[in-house]
Fold this protein.
Amino acid sequence: MGGENTTNPTHHMNRRNVLTALSSAAVTSLAGCSSSGSSNSEPDTPDEPGQATSKNGDNPGTETTTTSEPPAYTKDTGSIPHSLTNAANTHYNEEFAGPSVDATTAWTADTSHDTNVVVKNGITYTLNPDVRLKAYTADGTKNWEAEFDVKYGPYVFDDVVVAVGEQQIVGVNVDDGSRAFISTPEFNDGSAAPRPEPFHKEGNKLFLLAQTSLSDSAIFTFDVEQQSLVNESTKFTKIGQPTVGGGKAFIPVDQGLSALLRAIDLESGEKAWTLEIPGDLALNEYRDT
């Protein structure tokens, strides 16, 4: 959306990368601030992670500021770590350590270089670009294989492995790969392709970012046990991908001439707070992201 972009491509991408990076940086150091300037958002309440300011009792004219640490973000125990290993996106997970001795190959499997891999309870689950879900036992034996029209996954829950496609959310049984359910949620009224993108898994819920119209998006909560959507967040025009920490999703959004970092409570779907991103970063050129 938006008009033709005449900005130098390299400069454009550098600035866009800076904007996306601010969604993580602000989470760790600025999350307690409120939006200001040209934003039409209502005043926001400081929330963790961030800063808390209190009056100094000994010197009434001064203030003391304390900074809280960002909450740790960890994957399920046994899952292969990926880039979102904590709230700061440091690409490091202290819960996972390399071998203490020289590593040896236990087994190999014929997969694509784009294969997504998750390990849970000794079972290795993969999703290939040719939309095949596979499960391998601890000795490398292929336990089962299933083929569905899906793009994102696998997400391993207690009894099912979930994968997400453009039009459907699929669940297969962990034991044999048989179909547990196929859900076709309605993310909007059909005015735009929803393009659902899962970004966080917690308990029996999968959180997805999907378009609600040509310009707006929302965070949707899919309950695996109920096999349906159970919640939808307030809408926004996204200009970046969400980062998760402390029960909240932090996402850069477009607000006219301002770029905002919005914190959304994952349980309720409500806005927790909004922070205006400073500097010359919120231009119309970002609206076609």
About this structure: The longest strand covers residues 248-255.
